[in-house]
Structures are given as C-alpha cells and as structure tokens.
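Design request, tokens follow.
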C-alpha cells in the first residue's frame, strides 16, 4: 500500500460491523473514497472535496478507521481550502504507472499527487502526464478510472469499452521549443515539490526568487502564469469550484489562474519556465535553451532577462520586478 500516492485507501481488518454498509464486496477490503469520508464526518458533496478539506476531528476518525496516522492523512491533502484553485477538475495520469498497476493488480489507480496543478510530469518515468482518453480523445469525462462490479477498470466513459494503454506513445511536445534534459528535469522536480509544500504551508526545500513570509511560492507562480497567458493571448474561462466560490466574499476578485486550469502541455511549459526563471542560475550545470519566437530552433539561452524581453510590453515591467526580487524560502 502506497498511502501517500494512491487515491483510494486499502483498509486493514477493522471494526467491520460498524461500517459494513460502506464496504465493497467482502473479498475486496477497499472502501469507496466518498462513502468512507462521509462516514468519518466530512461534509462532502464529492470525493474530490476531500483533497482540500481540513477538519481535525474528521481526520482523527478517518485515521482510526483506516489504521493510518493522522500525519499520513494530512499529507494526502492537495492543499488548504484556499488552495482549491490548484486542484484539477479532471483526472490526469502517467501511462507507464497505470500499465504497472494493471500488471500488478489488474486495476488502475489515480495518484493523489497527480491532482494538483504543481504536478505536470511523472517523477519516476520522466513523462508528461496525460489527460485525453486514448479511446475517445476527450478530456474530463471520467475515463480510465471507473468502478465496475466492485473493481476499478480502465474503461472509456464515453464509448463504454476498455482503453488500450499498451500502444506506443508519441513524444512529448512542449511550447517554446523546451525539452526535458537533465537540468530542466532537476529544476522542475524541485519546483513541483516545493509548490506542493507551499500549498499545505510547509517549509520549502529550496530557495526561489521573490519568496518571503508575505509572498508564498504559489502566489509567485500564479503571477508568472498570468504574465505568460497575457503574452500568448490565451485567457481561458475555467469554472472555479462552487465550494470555493461560496467561501469568497468577492470570488471574482479572489480568482487567479493556476497551472491546474490549463492543458497539461501548456501547464508543463509554464512550470518549466518558472523552474528556470525562479532558480539561481549560477548552480546550473548546463545552459537551457528555448525558442520564444517558435521558429523551430531552440537556440536562445533561457535566462530571467530573455524571459522578460519575451513578455508582452504590458506586463514586462511586472516581470522585471519579479526577476529582480531576492531569493528566499
């Protein structure tokens, strides 16, 4: 059992009489996430709300029911209630991870870490996460992780048949001529880890440009995301979570773009840019090159200065202020 990575929780032998009505078939020992959470005392309308639901009493109950520690329950969160905008509203996955699940137990499992917009790559397999169903090519329809007869099945929710995950996968394509090399991989991994830590209020592992007690790392990446979206003239209109909107006195003023709201390839490109721009370049082993004009040749060094010059004139001074900020944790 990988208690910090799996969405569903494998349950040991516990007080079966009290919660018998919430069990799957007896030979399964696995509970539906929503049923388990509601029984523990979380007032949820959907299982995904558990990602940002913080209730100590309910955490204690859930820990007692599952046998996990309260700390393990807490670190499964994607963030605080204020961080709901960083949680994706649809499933993404690493194809290789799901293949291994099917080989090991004949069931696909969604990792909790895939839900946050801070994750765009599989750290283990160094592949960009996928979001379009290989069968129907649609996003956000609930494909791949469907319950059928008490087991998770790799089914297409649109066409109703099994999804074939064993074919060849096309090479990852990123905007602005970016590619995954050793330097980029190291920077992206460090930024993703610290974004996740920032979302739950933990101390960061690395130093990042502009971070302070007053300005969290997530806030800086949100600003950088908006600068890039303005520069490429792409401002989507995502539907914020209703539970988040109801908590805001003025949700339009509180709204901000996050990578979780964007197509995964674009989100990956933004995280890659942010990981380089916000890092200390003197520690880079190799230079990173990009193609801001998208002329098919990545020959320009990616530095905070070239990033600022690429930005739209309306946000260039904002970008210059960002890269001139000192490093902090």
């Amino acid at each position: 059992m990988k208690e910090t990575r799996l969405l569903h929780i494998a349950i040991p032998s516990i007080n079966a009489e009290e919660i018998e009505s919430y069990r799957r078939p007896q030979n399964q020992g696995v509970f539906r996430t929503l049923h388990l959470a509601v029984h523990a005392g979380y007032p949820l309308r959907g299982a995904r709300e558990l990602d940002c639901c913080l209730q100590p009493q309910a955490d204690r109950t859930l820990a007692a029911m599952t046998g996990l520690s309260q700390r393990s329950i807490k670190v499964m969160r994607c963030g605080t209630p204020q961080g709901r905008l960083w949680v994706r509203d649809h499933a993404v996955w690493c194809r290789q991870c799901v293949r291994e699940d099917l080989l090991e137990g004949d069931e696909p499992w969604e990792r909790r870490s895939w839900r946050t917009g801070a994750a765009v790559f599989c750290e283990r397999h160094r592949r960009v996460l996928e979001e379009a169903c290989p069968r129907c090519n649609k996003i956000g329809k609930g494909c791949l992780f469907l319950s059928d007869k008490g087991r998770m099945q790799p089914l297409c929710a649109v066409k109703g048949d099994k999804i074939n995950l064993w074919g060849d996968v096309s090479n990852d394509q990123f905007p602005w001529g970016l590619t995954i090399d050793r330097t980029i991989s190291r920077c992206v991994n460090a930024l993703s880890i610290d974004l996740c830590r920032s979302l739950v209020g933990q101390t960061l592992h690395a130093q990042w440009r502009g971070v302070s007690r007053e300005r969290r790392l997530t806030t800086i990446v949100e600003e950088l995301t908006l600068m890039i979206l303005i520069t490429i003239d792409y401002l989507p209109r995502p539907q914020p979570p209703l539970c988040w909107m109801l908590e805001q006195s003025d949700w339009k003023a509180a709204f901000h773009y996050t990578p979780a709201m964007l197509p995964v390839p674009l989100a990956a490109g933004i995280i890659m840019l942010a990981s380089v721009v916000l890092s200390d370049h003197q520690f880079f082993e190799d230079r990173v090159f990009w193609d801001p004009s998208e002329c098919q040749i990545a020959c320009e060094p990616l530095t905070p200065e070239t990033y600022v010059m690429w930005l739209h004139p309306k946000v260039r001074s904002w970008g210059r202020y960002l890269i001139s900020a000192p490093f902090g944790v």
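Comment from the thread starter after seeing the answer: thanks! The chain has eleven helices and eight strands.
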